[in-house]
Design goal:
The protein is an alpha/beta fold and about 300 residues long. The protein contains 11 helices and 9 strands. The strands form 2 sheets. The protein has a 5-stranded parallel beta sheet. Helix 5 packs across helix 11. It binds phosphoric acid mono(formamide)ester and norvaline.
């Protein structure tokens, strides 16, 4: 049994194995209907409990489809429906119960400590479905999408992130170390990655380049990523923060600086950090990106259940 909590804690070879498995499985499913299981039903009868302390559309539906296509099923809970959420039960007892009834647990939380606490007490695999500090399932799936579209290993590409230094960027930074790709970041000074992240990067002998000018960050990029300026956990003056990011809004002109065939990716939901003409434009692959979460999460589940081929 394995957990999937943070990209930085998973070995490079396991991350690559997950992507290879996802590629094969996606290919084999071409003629199957949405709810038809993969041949062999590798997770037959298994139940994934997923709990959301925060809103989710994609993560919820893609995990539902992922385990269903592997022969299992999900139970989706909101924390406020549980004794835990009402303050009447401990994480330790809740984890014991989840481990008694379920086979795996996916948690979207507003508190990183909860991931650690659940990990301590669960005896079933735990998956981080977004926390304030990371969004690993999203980013591993995004690596898959980049390689699928570009038909090249991501290590040969220049990746650019324009936006906030948030959970998704933290996971992308961790991925840049594991998959050895060039990463440039465009963000206002005040919202640059923090010391802890930068120290981890240098400890791992990697470099990320931070610009406070979006055009410089986008120079020669093969992929431009973005995300909302205001994340679910952001307790900031929203109006002021949006104003501080005004210069970083992604407009068509940014693609004058990137490589010609540069693609645009965004994990969704979107705010006004990107122009409609880009989001729905020819460089954008956001819908394919969202769909691929199903495929990659299937292989993440198999990794957690010790069933990866
Ligand atoms: N990208 C993503 O995680 O979307 P949801 O918040 O809708 O799950
Ligand atoms: N950074 C965003 C990602 C949403 C999928 C958030 O945390 O709200």
């Amino acid at each position: 049994m394995k957990n999937f909590l943070n990209i930085k804690d998973i070995s490079k070879s396991d991350l690559k194995k997950i992507l290879i498995d996802a590629k094969q499985r996606k290919k084999l499913r071409k003629k199957l209907n949405t709810l038809e299981p993969d041949k062999g039903l590798p997770l037959k009868g298994k139940m994934l409990v997923q709990m959301f302390e925060k809103a989710s559309s994609r993560t919820r539906i893609s995990f539902y489809l992922a385990i269903k296509q592997l022969g299992g099923g999900t139970l989706t809970l909101r924390s406020n429906e549980l004794h835990l959420g009402q303050g009447g039960e401990t994480i330790a007892d809740t984890a014991k119960i989840l481990s008694t009834y379920g086979d795996g647990f996916m948690l979207r939380t507003d508190d990183d400590r909860k991931i650690e606490d659940f990990q301590k007490h669960l005896t079933i695999p735990l998956i981080n479905g977004l926390s304030p500090s990371s969004h690993p399932t999203q980013v591993l799936s995004d690596i898959f999408t980049v390689e699928e579209i570009k038909k090249r290993p991501i290590s040969k590409l220049k990746i650019c992130w324009i936006g906030d230094s948030n959970n998704v960027l933290n996971s992308l930074i961790a991925a840049s170390v594991k998959f050895s790709f060039r990463l440039s970041i465009g963000c206002p000074k005040k919202f640059a990655p923090g010391k802890k992240v930068k120290n981890w990067v240098s400890k791992n002998k990697k470099k990320i380049v931070i610009y406070h000018d979006p055009k410089k960050a986008a120079m020669d990029a093969d992929v431009v990523f973005s995300d909302k300026v205001i994340s679910l956990n952001d307790k900031v003056n929203k109006k002021r923060k949006k104003q501080q990011f005004k210069k970083f809004k992604i407009k068509k002109e940014i693609f004058k600086y990137t490589k010609k065939d540069c693609i645009f990716l965004h994990c969704l939901p979107r705010g006004d950090e990107v122009e409609e003409s880009v989001f729905l434009g020819k460089n954008s692959h956001v819908w394919q990106q969202a769909l691929n979460r199903v495929h990659v999460q299937k292989s993440i589940l198999l990794y957690c259940f010790g069933k990866l081929r």
